[in-house]
Amino acid sequence: LLSIAGLAAIAIHNAYLFEMTTTDMMTKLKLKHFFLNTLQDRMKACVQEEGTASLLMLDIDHFKRVNDTYGHLAGDVTLKEVAGIVLDAVRLIDVAARYGGEEFIVLLPETRRSEARNVAERIRKRIEEEGFVSGNHLIRVTVSLGVAEFDPKLDTTPQAFIERADKALYVSKQNGRNRTTLDA
Fold first, then answer.
1. How far, in Å, CA of 82 to CA of 60, rounded?
2. Are the beta carbons of 173 and 152 closer than 8 angstroms?
3. Catalytic residues, which ones?
4. By C-alpha distance, which of 154, 173, 176 is closest to 164?
5. What phi and psi, each to the nearest 5 degrees, are found at residue 46?
6. Which helix (H) or strand (E) holds 59?
7. SS3 28
8. What pLDDT score was predicted for residue 14?
9. How far is the CA of 77 from the CAs of 19, 90, 99, in angstroms?
């Protein structure tokens, strides 16, 4: 029994270490390097199995204004709350990650572009409706999103796939923010 307990303790500790090295501790989203490795594996599986996947990229609109107006602690609260909404909106098989400062990315395996757009809109609308409390302040933000579905002819690398979702995100920003744009 002691040997089994020792092995169980090691397994639990290893799982804890894995979680620490793959997860952003503030937002509870996966880290970019973990996401990129997972995306590469998923893309290979899509090619081999003729499957599909979609990406969502989202960016908090005017995030610098939150930090400048309410302070960096309020910015941290906003990041955590937005990340929580993203996590609530995705399935267990999906992978949500913090891609940059206030930019997030979500891999949606076995998801077509139209379904991914529905997920993106659900996230966008909920963030728009929610208010985040920091100190005595109620903070309201919006997000812009870009959506791309995996295309093995175009997406020969994870960076190429991400670039298409990022371009769609950029179109959302250019067209007034607080919207979802599908890749061209």
1. 8
2. no
3. 102
4. 154
5. -60, -40
6. strand 53-60
7. coil
8. 75
9. 22, 20, 17
CB burial of residue 44 (10 Å; 0-12, 13-18, 19+): exposed
Q: Is the pTM of this model over 0.85?
A: yes
Instruction: Name the maximum alpha-carbon separation found in the chain.
Output: 63
Distance from the Cα of residue 90 to its chain's centroid:
9
Instruction: Answer yes or no: are the C-beta atoms of 113 and 182 closer than 8 Å.
Output: yes
Tally of CB atoms within 10 A around 134: 17
**CA distance linking residue 177 with residue 65, whole number of Å:** 15
Give 13's pLDDT tier (boundaries 50, 70, 90).
low
For 19-65, what is each residue's pLDDT tens digit?
777 789 899 999 999 999 999 999 999 999 999 999 999 999 999 99
Mode of pairing for the β-strands spanning 137-139 and 103-109: unpaired
Report the pLDDT averaged over residues 100-112: 96
SS3 101: coil
- Integer Cα distance of 132 and 74 in angstroms: 9
